[in-house]
């Protein structure tokens, strides 16, 4: 949102400066060219005027204006000094900004973040990236997004607005713009809901946090909702009952998949759009946030011929991504891997993937029964939702299959409680489960603008007492690269429970009561997650505030 405000301010800034440039050109012509009246009433120009000088002057003025704008929105200059630095930049062009960049790069390099040359090169690449779309004549069609339904028809064809009027085109353009902005901002969800009868709010969930993007008029908001429902094969006329749908979007050479859910609310209809992570298939255990010790533990569990690895965490905590990372450690050529998902977020080559469709009678339980007749080595269950699915998956892990599954719960102990609540036999749990992994996602600090955290004397004493090196803890500042939030991307923290024979015996003999698991197990699980998160805080990867926000 900050970047949009900056872009808007930049347009206004250049509009005002256009007048300054025009006046400068007129002054230049008056000082360098002498006009005389010649026969015929025409005006001629003496050799004192040079078109080359004029072109160079215009180019230099606009270059100076561009760098003034870069300084205005740069975090290198304190706000109180920006007017003076802007004037200097207007006179010297890139010299001031380049000097500030070098000084900041040397300072960061001395703090051990990165080499000064690498920092400067990154800043230059970022600046070129910002001007590339408008400077190098990129074709508009190359960046045009196309929304398609399940059969491949475009949104205009679905709505029959291929030859519609201005209002229809405006609605479709706004719909495509919202989806395009969400992809550009790395959003995981788009929410369109009515704030009142006359206003709809559009919000993006970016790095796990909701941001208000824009407010649109009520009629226009409902028209956008209808457009998305139409391309998602949903009933436009039904606004009260909940509906589900899906659509895809193509932009240049990339394709994104979307899952849509609607519901009737007080002021109309709300739409929730989940953007499926198409890059999940490229993740490995090495880049999801696991420590070396945890990675070895998971790797040993994945290499076993049988057993059940259960991923658990609240919604939106990265369970599916971690599940794909584990599957990517398996050799698909030598092992028959079959998955049951709702929906399929990413296509894995050489892997048989089944998508759940309750309308067609394809459920998790029915799919699992059929999978067991397909000679599988590895089975992946997208989500354990009922007793039947849990029981079939656990029995499969007993009969020589390696089973991956996810379940919604807060901690490892809560996952056991959830299975008990579903009615799964304790003996079946003890014999089938081998590993339980719970995780959370923390927002990464922006490496470009993060600064060392400042603490009070009492806080520093507390850190010393606990043996924590507080000098390597960073906090947010905000810049144009991270949209002023101070965060860019996310990383995971994990708590791994390996069920040994003692633990399995206690589960089978029902020596673990539900109350004990909820009290002691949850407390221990959160403590383990906090320790893993604190390691990332001390490493300067995440902030202390972010750790407290996620774990409390």
Blueprint (SSEs and pairs):
Layout: H1 2-32, E1 35-37, E2 43-45, H2 51-72, H3 82-92, H4 94-110, H5 116-135, H6 140-143, E3 145-148, H7 155-159, H8 166-184, E4 187-194, E5 199-206, E6 209-217, H9 218-231, E7 243-251, E8 254-265, E9 268-275, H10 292-302, E10 307-312, H11 319-327, E11 337-341, E12 352-355, H12 364-371, E13 378-381, H13 387-398, E14 402-407, H14 412-422, H15 426-432, E15 433-445, E16 451-452, H16 457-466, E17 474-475, E18 487-498, H17 501-508, H18 514-538, H19 544-551
Parallel strand pairs: 10-14, 10-15, 11-12, 11-13, 13-14
Antiparallel strand pairs: 1-2, 3-7, 4-5, 4-9, 5-6, 7-8, 8-9, 15-18, 16-17
Please report the number of helical segments.
19
CATH homologous superfamily designation of the largest domain: P-loop containing nucleotide triphosphate hydrolases
Which percent band covers the strand fraction? 15-25%
How many β-strands, per DSSP?
A: 18
How much is the radius of gyration in Å?
A: 29 Å
What low-confidence regions span 5 or more consecutive residues with pLDDT below 50? Answer: 1-16, 32-46, 129-142
Write the CATH fold name of the largest domain: Rossmann fold
Question: Which outline best applies?
Answer: globular
CATH architecture of the largest domain: 3-Layer(aba) Sandwich
Distance between the termini: 27 Å
Structural class: alpha/beta
How many domains, as an integer?
Answer: 3
Largest sheet: 7 strands, antiparallel
Secondary structure: helix percent: 40-55%
Task: Work out the oligomeric state of the chains in this entry.
Answer: single chain
CATH class of the largest domain: Alpha Beta
Strand order in the largest sheet: 3-7-8-9-4-5-6
What is the average of the pLDDT values? 80
């Amino acid at each position: 949102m900050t970047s949009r405000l900056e872009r808007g301010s930049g347009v206004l800034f250049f509009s005002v400066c256009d007048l300054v440039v025009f006046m400068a050109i007129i002054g230049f012509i008056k000082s360098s060219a002498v006009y005389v009246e010649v026969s015929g009433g025409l005006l001629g120009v003496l050799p004192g005027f040079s078109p080359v000088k004029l072109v160079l002057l215009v180019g230099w003025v606009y270059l100076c204006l561009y760098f003034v704008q870069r300084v205005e929105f740069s975090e290198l200059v304190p706000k109180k000094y920006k007017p003076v630095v802007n004037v200097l930049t207007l006179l010297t062009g890139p010299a001031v900004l380049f000097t500030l960049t070098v000084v900041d790069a040397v300072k960061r390099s001395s703090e051990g973040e990165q080499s000064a040359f690498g920092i400067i090169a990154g800043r230059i690449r970022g600046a070129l990236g910002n001007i590339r779309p408008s400077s190098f004549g990129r074709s508009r069609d190359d960046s045009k997004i196309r929304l398609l339904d399940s059969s491949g028809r475009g949104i205009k064809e679905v709505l029959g607005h291929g030859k519609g009027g201005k209002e229809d085109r405006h609605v479709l353009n706004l719909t495509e713009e919202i989806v395009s902005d969400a992809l550009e901002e790395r959003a995981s969800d788009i929410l369109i809901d009515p704030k009142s009868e006359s206003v709809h709010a559009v919000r993006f969930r970016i790095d796990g946090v909701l941001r208000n993007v824009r407010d649109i008029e009520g009629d226009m908001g409902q028209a956008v909702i209808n457009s998305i429902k139409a391309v998602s094969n949903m009933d436009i006329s039904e606004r009260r009952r909940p509906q589900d749908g899906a659509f895809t979007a193509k932009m240049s050479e990339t394709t994104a998949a979307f899952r849509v859910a609607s519901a009737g609310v007080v002021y109309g209809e709300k739409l929730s759009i989940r953007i499926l992570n198409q890059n999940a298939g490229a993740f490995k255990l090495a880049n999801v946030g696991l420590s070396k010790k945890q990675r070895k533990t998971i790797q040993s569990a994945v290499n076993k011929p049988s057993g059940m690895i259960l991923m658990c965490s609240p919604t939106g905590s990265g369970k599916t991504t971690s599940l794909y990372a584990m599957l990517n450690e398996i050799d698909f050529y030598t092992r028959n891997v079959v998955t049951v998902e709702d929906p399929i977020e990413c296509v894995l080559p050489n892997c048989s993937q089944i998508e759940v469709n309750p309308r067609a009678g394809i459920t998790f339980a029915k799919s699992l029964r059929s999978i067991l007749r397909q000679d599988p080595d590895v089975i992946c269950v997208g989500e354990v939702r009922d007793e039947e699915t849990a029981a079939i998956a656990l029995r499969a892990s007993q009969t020589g299959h390696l089973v991956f599954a996810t379940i919604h719960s807060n901690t490892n102990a809560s996952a056991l409680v959830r299975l008990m609540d579903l009615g799964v036999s304790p003996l079946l749990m003890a014999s089938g489960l081998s590993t339980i992994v719970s995780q959370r996602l923390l927002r990464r600090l922006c490496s470009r603008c993060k600064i060392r955290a400042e603490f009070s004397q009492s806080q520093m004493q507390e850190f010393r007492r606990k043996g924590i090196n507080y000098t390597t803890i960073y906090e947010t500042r905000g810049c144009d690269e991270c949209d002023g939030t101070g965060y860019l991307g996310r990383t995971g923290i994990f708590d791994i429970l390996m069920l040994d024979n003692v633990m399995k015996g206690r589960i089978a003999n029902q020596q673990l009561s539900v109350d004990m698991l909820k009290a002691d197990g949850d407390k221990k699980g959160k403590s383990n997650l906090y320790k893993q998160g604190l390691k990332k805080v001390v490493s300067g990867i995440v902030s202390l505030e972010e750790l407290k926000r996620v774990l409390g």
